Amino acid sequence: MNKTILASAAATCCFTYYESPIGLIEIESSEGAVTSLVFADERRPEMIKNAVGEEAARQIAEYFEGERREFDVPVLLRGTRFQRQVWDELLDIPFGQTVTYGDIAKAIGKPTAVRAVGAANGQNPVSIIVPCHRVIGNGGRLTGYGGGLWRKQWLLKHEGGLLL
Fold first, then answer.
1. Which domains occur in the chain, in start order?
2. Is 13 among the catalytic positions?
3. What are the tens digits of pLDDT across the range 130-162?
4. ∠ Cα 118 66 83 (to 5°)
């Protein structure tokens, strides 16, 4: 997986969509990188596509078809230094595995920042590609997911990381 690209220049945003088994996914891209991947209720009327967004949609389709476990499309993550530390750590969680918020806090050298890690995880702008769904609470509890806990559960089952 490519690590994050950290930049801040403004550019034209392009939107690509993928109809996944768990809902419509909107992929925003600019500057040659994916800047957002979220579940959407509907498509934007001013949809503009670009090659990066199309490649991300292709890779997401392969993921849902069970043919892809890692993504190599570039991502641009804008956030605080702390958020970027958390998001970079998320990129190291292998397909089919889970870690706790405490594990992430320890990995970034801030073992008491468990709640702050949870908040940063919840602000991840590029879900699935930056796999925030692979972070669970102590004792294997499913906690917060911007796309809804049912989607988090589906994604973890899809990856074989959740045995219920």
1. 81-159 (1.10.10.10)
2. no
3. 999 999 998 888 888 888 899 999 999 999 976
4. 20
